[in-house]
Amino acid sequence: MLYPFKFKTQFFEKIWGANNLKYLPGKNCAHIDKCGESWEISGLENKSSEIENGFLAGNFLDEIVEVYMEDLVGERVFSQYGNSFPLLVKFLDTADYLSVQVHPGNNKATLGKAEMWYVVNAEPESEIILGFNQKVNKEAFIYHLENKSLRSILNIIKPKAGDVFYIPPGTIHAIGAGVTLLEIQQSSDITYRVYDWDRPGLDGKQRELNIEQALNTIDFEAINLDKISFSEQLNQSVSILQTDYFTANVLAFNKPFKTDYVKIDSFVILCCVEGSYKINIDGVDELIEKGRCILLPADSNEIELISDFARIIEVFV
Q1: Does domain 10-215 sit in CATH 2.60.120.10?
Q2: Rounded Cα gap, residues 139 and 151, in angstroms
Q3: How many alpha carbons lie under 13 Å from residue 198 in its C-beta half-sphere?
Q4: Entry pTM
Q5: What is the 3-state secondary structure of the chain?
Q6: Where are the domains of the chain?
Q7: Tens place of pLDDT per residue across the chain (317 aa)
């Protein structure tokens, strides 16, 4: 019988990375100078997450999807995605701006990259870029790019902890300095960089730009986008976002919370963004602390979450 899976975190150094992830439980990345990303759950080839608990410890997510198929991900999900795990979950921590970038949508060969950000922490001066602040066409975009005035046409938002943003494929975007966030995305690592602030990469060389691909991808109608509006209610799962690619809810609770995900017909990922909690299934407890995620197989039922206070993001397909 399958059980809730915990995974070893994978860390990635980034030119824009900060050093705050190391203060979250279980994130031993102090040896990485600019630890920009921690990958919590991934089925990507060569970057698949390794299980760290239970009888399947040491196996990788892409391997167990092939073995357990619909028992793990759900019949509906397996019929759509087969042996490919459809989501990638990570935390990002920034000391500088990410490149101004865009992600493609689905095509016949690969998944696109729709993503959602849940802001865990943001400094008062922090910014994110999300779409444009005015009507723009391709020619105007190229003009501002060549004249280094791109920022003047971009929609800049001051994020704060608890904000949620959705970034559909085609939306120009970037995360500024001083932000720690949870990112839920389709299982794709395709990024088209448009502008990288004229800085060298970790190897001292300019990072590759993908301007032609980006120009064919950008949604120039994405204007004045903003955070997602939702109303959190204590001890109740509240919908944040429903897309063709994934659904996300927020659950804040301060007393035992019982739930059952069987009818969803999908695996469920629970990401702890505040506090900590114990998850009890069939008498087995697992402690999940802030900054950690757990994967529940599709056949999970009669789940109890126990905490004096915790806030988690529930994600499924």
Answers
A1: yes
A2: 16
A3: 6
A4: 0.96
A5: CCCCECECCEEEEEEEEECCHHHCCCCCCCCCCCEEEEEEECCCCCCCCEECCCCCCCCEHHHHHHHHCHHHHCHHHHHHHCCCCCEEEEEEEECCCCCEEECCCCCCCCCCCCEEEEEEEECCCCCEEEEECCCCCHHHHHHHHHCCCHHHHEEEECCCCCCEEEECCCCCEEECCCEEEEEEEECCCCCEEEECCCCECCCCCECCCCHHHHHCCCCCCCECCCCCCCCCCCCEEEEEEECCCCEEEEEEECCCEEECCHHHCCCEEEEEEEEEEEEEECCEEEEEECCCEEEECCCCCCEEEECCCEEEEEEEC
A6: 10-215, 236-316
A7: 899 999 999 999 999 999 999 988 878 888 899 999 999 999 999 999 999 999 999 999 999 999 999 999 999 999 999 999 999 999 999 999 999 999 999 875 678 899 999 999 999 999 999 999 999 999 999 999 999 999 999 999 999 999 999 999 999 999 999 999 999 999 998 999 999 999 988 888 889 999 999 999 999 999 999 999 999 999 999 999 999 999 999 999 999 999 988 889 999 999 999 999 999 987 778 999 999 999 999 988 889 999 999 999 999 99
* CATH number for the segment(s) 236-316: 2.60.120.10
Which residues are within 8 A (CB) of 8 and not within 5 positions of it... i.e. 6 or more apart? 49, 50, 51, 52
| CA-based nearest residue to 178, from 190, 160, 204, 197 | 160
